[in-house]
């Protein structure tokens, strides 16, 4: 499968300045930008910056960033699911995962994450994919936001809906381990029925297990 990446951008006015939401951006562009020291949700900033550069280098990898002048203050990643995850057990070239979304605290509340997803979906190429995201409450910044689990879940659903992702049922044990966890997905309009059927198989792999 050929992975075509078309660059899109939009400006977003916030109380802390104008952000440029742009991407997918190349590994070279990522390398030239400063990575904000408050982007610590997944790894220390230097390590996460390096990880994003590696993702951008992958054929299917897509990084959309929110940039304040020369500094990355938010991002979203798209790439094939981890080989150790259920979603890779049946190899699908047209299934990619929205792996991470992060925005520094000083720009939260300005719809930065929603706009990252909107810019990502501007690319017509995204209609060729099933895009999934797995939400686990233990990854959520409950302390930093002051939200309880259910309010955070509602916030995540609202954010993901900006990119056209909706709730999908699954029997995945890790997702089923807590009622706040969920699978969300967006099935592009060009995805063939066979791929949708394979995705359904992945969602319910334990159906015939006793």
From TrEMBL:
Pfam families linked: Acetyltransf_1 (PF00583)
PROSITE patterns documented for this protein: GNAT
Keyword Transferase: yes
Coiled coil: none
Biological process, per Gene Ontology: acetoin catabolic process
Limits of the N-acetyltransferase domain: 23-189
GO molecular function: acetoin dehydrogenase (NAD+) activity; acyltransferase activity, transferring groups other than amino-acyl groups
Keywords in alphabetical order: Transferase
Protein's name according to its UniProt entry: GNAT family N-acetyltransferase
């Amino acid at each position: 499968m050929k992975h075509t990446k078309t660059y899109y951008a939009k400006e977003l006015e916030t109380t802390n300045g104008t952000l440029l939401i742009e991407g997918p951006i190349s590994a070279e562009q990522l390398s030239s930008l400063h990575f904000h020291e408050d982007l610590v949700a997944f790894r220390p900033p230097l390590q996460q910056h390096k990880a994003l550069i590696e993702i951008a280098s992958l054929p299917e990898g897509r990084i959309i960033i929110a940039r304040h002048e020369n500094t990355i203050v938010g991002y979203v990643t798209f790439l094939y699911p981890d080989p150790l995850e259920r979603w890779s057990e049946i190899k699908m070239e047209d299934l990619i995962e929205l792996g991470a979304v992060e925005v520094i605290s000083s720009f939260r509340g300005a719809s930065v994450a929603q706009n990252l997803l909107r810019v990502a979906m501007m690319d017509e190429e995204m209609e060729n994919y099933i895009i999934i995201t797995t939400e686990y409450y233990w990854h959520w910044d409950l302390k930093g936001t002051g939200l309880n689990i259910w309010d955070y879940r509602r916030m995540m659903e609202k954010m993901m809906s900006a990119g056209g992702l909706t709730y999908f049922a699954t029997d995945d044990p890790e997702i089923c381990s807590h009622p706040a966890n969920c699978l969300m997905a967006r099935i592009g309009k060009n995805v063939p029925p066979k791929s949708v059927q394979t995705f359904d198989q992945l969602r319910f792999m334990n159906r015939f297990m006793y």
